[in-house]
Amino acid sequence: MRGIPEPYLVPPKGSPIALLIWVIRSQWTTVFQGVVCDIVWLLGLALTPWAIGQSIDLGIVAGDPGAFLAWLGVVVWLQLQHSLIQGLRDRAGSLNFSRAESRLNQMLTRASTRVTVAADRELNPGGIVTMVTESWAIASLTIGVGSLSSAIIAFVLVAILLLQDSLLLGALVLVCVPVFSLLSFTLVGVIHDRQQSVWQARSQLTTVSTDSVKGLRVLHGIGGEEQFLGRFRESSSRLRVAGRRAATPLATAQALSVLVAGTLVGALTWIGAVMVHSGQLQVGALVAFYGYAGFLTLPVSLINQVMATGVNAHVASKQIIRLLRIEPDWPFASDGFAAKEVDRVGVAEIADPLLLDEVTGLTINRGELLGVVVPDPVFASELVDRIARLCPDAEGSPVRLGGIRLVDLPIGTVRNRVSAVDPVPFLFSGTLREVLDPWLAHDDESIRKAVGAVDASDILGAVESGLDSVVGERGSDLSGGQRQRLGVARSLLREVELLVLHDPTSSVDAPTELRMAEGIRSARLGRSTLVITSSPLVLAGADRVALVSNGRLVAAGRHDELLDTVPQYRAAVLREDAQG
What we know:
Blueprint: H1 16-26, H2 28-61, H3 65-115, H4 117-122, H5 127-134, H6 136-165, H7 167-185, H8 188-214, H9 216-222, H10 225-277, H11 283-295, H12 297-325, E1 355-357, E2 362-364, E3 369-373, H13 377-387, E4 399-401, E5 404-405, H14 411-417, E6 418-421, E7 430-431, H15 432-436, H16 444-453, H17 457-461, E8 470-471, H18 480-494, E9 498-502, H19 510-523, E10 528-532, H20 536-539, E11 544-549, E12 552-557, H21 559-565, H22 567-579
Parallel strand pairs: 3-10, 3-11, 6-9, 9-10
Antiparallel strand pairs: 1-2, 1-4, 4-5, 7-8, 11-12
Helix pairs in contact: 1-12, 2-3, 2-6, 2-11, 3-6, 5-12, 6-7, 6-12, 7-10, 7-12, 8-10, 8-12, 10-11, 10-12, 16-18, 21-22
């Protein structure tokens, strides 16, 4: 048995055709096995009419019972080996498809997690989901190699057998089948363009569906179900129209296959009957010709099937190549990133300040809990992204960690030392233990301690299974305040050198907010924490508070001091307090 998934192989980024060849070449041994099975399987069917014709001419017509039984044995043997090879062929096809699909899913997962935010800018939100669902065509191409090879070989064999008995009938097959096949191939361009339209329409529909599911609770709250239902119907209608347009050339290709079969059966039967009547052809040969005519519909059908699959595979590979060509915002060590030389002394051993943002002039010292008030919410998000290096690297990095520019540090180092938490943290599905400790690095007692620090013990107490209770995707079965508290608890378990919290208490009530502020301070004692908030309850417990306005540091000091001495600070803080 072959294990799946297999070792990861780096895919090419050159062209869609190169990607398709790479998929086939990556598993050439099982593809070759499938080709051999397909050839033996189809040749068995191709030779059966010939063997039947021989049994008639050499046995029945010639009055030779021995020859008849011998050729009858050949027919039976061909059917037995066909039945046997059918199972091996199906097994090889399933194995090839599973291997290719596993490899493609592995590749898409790695590629999408590698580029993350950059992919969101370059592709539709539903683009990667559509790639996964449509990658079946590329996986099916590993089966199509055997189908195409066996169809061509079987066609050549039948043509040779026909030419031996009749040049006219052999020439008819040699001319008709390629001509009708070429007619089908003229539709490839149209099919490709229309399949591209189907891809785009399906991607847009996936985007609308994903947005609707993600925001279902919000839609219920604002009464926007009908609007999104209208968007879904509109996108679904476009997909239906695109699908119908794509079906027209595909149906035409299938119709040509039927036309090929009907023409060959009619022509070979009529011409063969005339030749038998005139004594130019034996009865057994006519029976064989009729069998050939019926058989040739199978290789023609296989060729058309591979053609349609190949078009879908090419469309899918074009989109995958787009994903593979996207460069990540941050180079990783696995991509050959060479960090610039830094002091051999670790960042944690360098003197204060721990962090300096040269854009605003904001600093944070080691072991300090710094509250930052930013009246402009857009600039607040930009500040978080810049400090945690969540935005693409710039030439002149304005943020220094321990005196070293963030851009000069490997991204893995930055992620291990600095962590940021959004106002609405993203929660993956799984048990509460997995949601809070995805690294599986803490025992239950440590997890419960972090949960208690953010006043979230009530969440554990409300469920029977405790840490083993299952959380839905994005925490859909939790309230906004519960999701927010669990997100902060998860960040506390990371125990990073610098934790950046962006409005960590915006979805909870005042008593909970006060307990969270005290718990965070206690849990982060001895480590640096930067909290962007306008909550007086949080700011009052900070070691130092900074006001950043219009992109610059305006004032810094204790919360009560700034309330008394800086009117702009007092207005920014008390406005939110008054609204609450």
